Amino acid sequence: MSDYSVRFLRPDEHRAASDLFRATLHVAAPSDDEWERSQHAYQPGRTLGVFDTGLIGTARSIDAELTVPGGKRVPVAAVTGVGVRADRTRRGVLTAMMGTQLRDLAARGVPLAALYATEGAIYGRYGYGPATRTRGYRVDRRRAVLRDEVPAGGEIELLTLEPALERLPGIYAALPHTAPGMMTRPPYWWPGFERHARRSTTPISTAVHHGPDGPDGFVVYTVVRSHSEDPDTLDVLSLHSASSEAFAGLWRFLLGVDLVDTISAADRPLDEPTELLFTDPTRCRPAAGHDHSTWLRLVDVEAALAAREYQGDPVVIEVSDPVLEANSGRYRVSPEGVVPTGEPAGLRLGVDALAMLYLGTWRASALAGTGLVQPVEPKAVAAADELFRTDVSAWCGTFF
């Protein structure tokens, strides 16, 4: 099938795109009242539609910034709302949309794109690679005891939904982004947060931590009462803190919430030291099924590589990008900079594997051992391990 057209949608077509996408997830279309709020999540000029006799596919993005190793914030397209009508799947519609979107991003000078994949086998062929890893855990609230050395933290302010919607954007924007992969939350992100909060069948609460200089952390949570022999669970939906004091203060608050047996936290940083807060670290146990990777795409390989910091000896990498062929070539990567080069390559890899290295989550040696990286010069693998290494685990912390 090739008898279709791809173009960016007008604002008056956004609701049709929303309906189509939700249908692909087997979710009902929004009501008029819900759409009144949800339409503000659609950034003008960023929603694609594919047409034959009508709309058969859609994908959209919002403009944000992503923190890369070294602390610089780089423009990123947060890609979401990707779906193809059930009677038009497996006919090249998704490939057409992804190609159009990536070429548009390249033309606009956006060096990175990111998404969350509902099906992990799909997006590697468009140059995306899983660039972060997370963990989930469950804390036995009734038996977890904080160690005496844990910081006391500051004051906690509890917000209901309306004041939280008003204040959280400013609080989040003021927090430092210390982990590679963290993303800003532009105005187009927050309507989605509001939609999910208002649709929740259990009340959503927000606790803000106040340090010496004002708000320096928050946790958004809900409590699920089982009304049976199952434990009553407090689900942590989002937790961000600017310091160890704020982190400890938020956990001190969570442990004090009554009528809760278990605290469940999903999609947390791999190096988050929650279990070390407790006299018995085993009160914080791993929870299965909570690793949701952020998939990253280097749209402009040279610009993206040049934006982050490195350590160690230089390595020449040969990159293959079948979608954006201008990216294909050799690059000399070193702490002094990144330049295209004609020097012999030490490593060969696809742009999807490069995305896996980019934030420091995966080591070149691990990718080489699974065939994702092809060593040309044996010493280059160890050199790339050091070159792309980061001291802080990559983590996004923002679902979109």
Commentary on this structure:
By secondary structure, the chain is an alpha+beta fold. Helices cover 25% and strands 30% of the residues. It has ten helices and 19 strands. It is globular, with a radius of gyration of 22 Å.
Main pleated sheet: 7 strands, mixed
Mean pLDDT: 96
Give the strand order of the largest sheet, numbering strands 1, 2, ... along the chain: 1-2-3-4-5-14-6
Based on CA inertia axes, which overall geometry fits? Answer: globular
What's the N-to-C terminus distance?
Answer: 31 Å
**Class by helix and strand content?**
alpha+beta
**pLDDT < 50 stretches:** none
Radius of gyration: 22 Å
What structural keywords apply?
globular, seven-stranded mixed β-sheet, 400 residues, alpha+beta, 30% strand
Helix/strand layout:
Layout: E1 5-8, H1 14-24, H2 32-38, E2 47-51, E3 55-67, E4 73-84, H3 93-108, E5 112-115, E6 129-130, E7 134-140, E8 155-159, H4 161-174, H5 190-199, E9 204-211, E10 214-224, E11 233-241, H6 244-255, E12 262-269, E13 284-287, E14 295-298, H7 301-307, E15 315-320, E16 329-334, E17 337-340, E18 347-350, H8 351-358, H9 364-369, E19 373-375, H10 379-387
Parallel strand pairs: 4-5, 11-12, 15-18
Antiparallel strand pairs: 1-2, 2-3, 3-4, 5-14, 6-14, 7-12, 7-13, 8-9, 9-10, 10-11, 15-16, 16-17, 18-19
Summarize the model shown:
By secondary structure, the protein is of the alpha+beta class.
